[in-house]
Amino acid sequence: MDTTSSELLSVVASRELAGKHTVFAGIGLPTLAASLAHLTVAPDLEIVYESGVCGAHPSHLPETIADAVLITGAEAVLPMPALFGNVLQGGHIDVGFLGAAQIDRWGNLNSSVIGDWAKPAVRLPGPGGAMEVMANSGEVFVVMRRHDRRSFVDQLDFCTSPGPDRALADGIRPLGAGVTRVITELGILARAGAGEPLRLVAVHPGVSADQVRAATGWDLDVADDLTTIEPPGEAELRRLREEVDPERVYLR
Amino acid sequence: MADAVAAFVHDGDTVSLEGFTHLIPTAAGHEIIRQGRRGLTVVRMTADIVVDQMLAGGCVRKLVSSFVGNSSAGSLGELRRRIERADPEPLEFEEYSHYGMICRYLAGAQRLPFYPLRSYAGSDLPSVNPGIRKVRSPYDEDDQVYVVPPIHPDVAIVHAQRADRAGNTQVWGLTGIQAEAVYAAKKAVVVVEEVVDDEVIRRDPNRTLIPAHAVDAVVACPRGAHPSFAQGYYDRDNQFYRGWSAISADPARLRDWLAEWVLGTRDHAEYVAKLGERYWAELAVDEALSLPVNYGRRR
């Protein structure tokens, strides 16, 4: 069965949510992954959105993190101080999903600028709640549409969302492990937590470790027991296409 | 609305506009453009379309924000031109994270000198924003934490579903940071879909997010949050969001848009009428009523 990159990333990310209880999801691929996991490997998963929605049960696929369909039928809708203060900073999120323009080997993320902050070549949306998701979630999964040297960099142009190593160096012990999984079209990079760099642990069929190394802007470690990712199965794809995103809002 | 903006928004003021994707006070932003305010500091967590429009309208000198983008629908052309190329003039920009902004409002609302949060450690943001500082816990020498300063806008403008004449304001759906913004500000204007009888509010007091004592003016302005939405009233205009990136990418096109839709309309009612009933029918929502609760009454 032919799969698009959105389908591939969503299915692979959804599998990683097996056994998780609460996930902080942004819109797009994280929503697809969390929704699919809810139907497959994590039926009890509570999906929390930055807008304040906990336990969303939307009738349609949401187009934004604040879509009206997320409100109707939700288990709770919290004001922002409660969502960010009690839920997130209080340590109630197992997995946070983040994206970024740049990532480095320690899982630090840049979503603010390309170039100098004061006079950037490209002004990106900025931190939003990504810094809080990174600082407070048990672990963070990153889904990157592009795996190349412009995104997987040796040095970030700007560190918007620092992982635990940078936080510790700044004298503050973070709650979570930072980025533990990075899912891309080429494979999966993983790290165990503080002090560990990202390593290549799995590749998609037909992708070689050298290919991933060449697309990564730092000297990428490869796991001794590198595995090949099981391609999306028919059942996973059917649920994703027919139940999660039948109107193909994100499944391009 | 014209009276409220004339009375409460002055050149050079710090103006907070809040509403997290839901209930964005767009009509108020448009009226500020119509009245030609200059030199404003705009405080808004998610600087989105209405901020891009106010920038293009020449109203804004400085922006305080934690997210600058056209939601998930693309980019803000005017904002990027001002930050990336100082075109047509530089924009002073103060960047925080979402919770940093929330804590600034909390500190402002509660008259605290700062508010601590478990963010920013290891980030580059403190190096470009002197407002973000690290302090030692007074209880444990080894414990450090970042803090943010309070914010006290001259005026906060928020949109809501309904209020009574006195300003008791009810919101449902996403309640965002509106109440804290109102309490942090020196003056507060609440724009509502409808002004209702006192009895409507009093029959459901838990739904009141902002009590009248915090409100200086109530403005009735149906559909005043477009292109954002009002839960239970009308849906988000996703097509408008998707279309905005192309409009704002081209400065001439953006100024034509402003000339036609903001400066070319007398008020928001005219803007609403110009869009047309068929347009609004597309954004209509069905009913999903909550069940009444029993507040009880002494026998």
UniProtKB/TrEMBL annotation, chain A:
Question: Which GO molecular-function terms appear in the entry?
Answer: CoA-transferase activity
Q: Which UniProt keywords apply?
A: Transferase
By its UniProt entry, which InterPro entries does this protein fall under?
CoA_trans_fam_I (IPR004165), NagB/RpiA_transferase-like (IPR037171)
Give the family this protein belongs to, as stated in its UniProt record: Belongs to the 3-oxoacid CoA-transferase subunit B family.
Q: What is this protein called?
A: 3-oxoadipate--succinyl-CoA transferase subunit B
Native organism is Amycolatopsis albispora
UniProtKB/TrEMBL annotation, chain B:
- tRNA-binding as a keyword? no
What keywords sit in the KW lines? Transferase
The record ties this protein, via Pfam families, to:
CoA_trans (PF01144)
Reply yes or no: does the keyword Transferase apply. yes
Superkingdom is Bacteria
- Which Gene Ontology terms cover its molecular function? CoA-transferase activity
Q: Which family does it belong to?
A: Belongs to the 3-oxoacid CoA-transferase subunit B family.
Which protein is depicted?
Answer: 3-oxoadipate--succinyl-CoA transferase subunit A
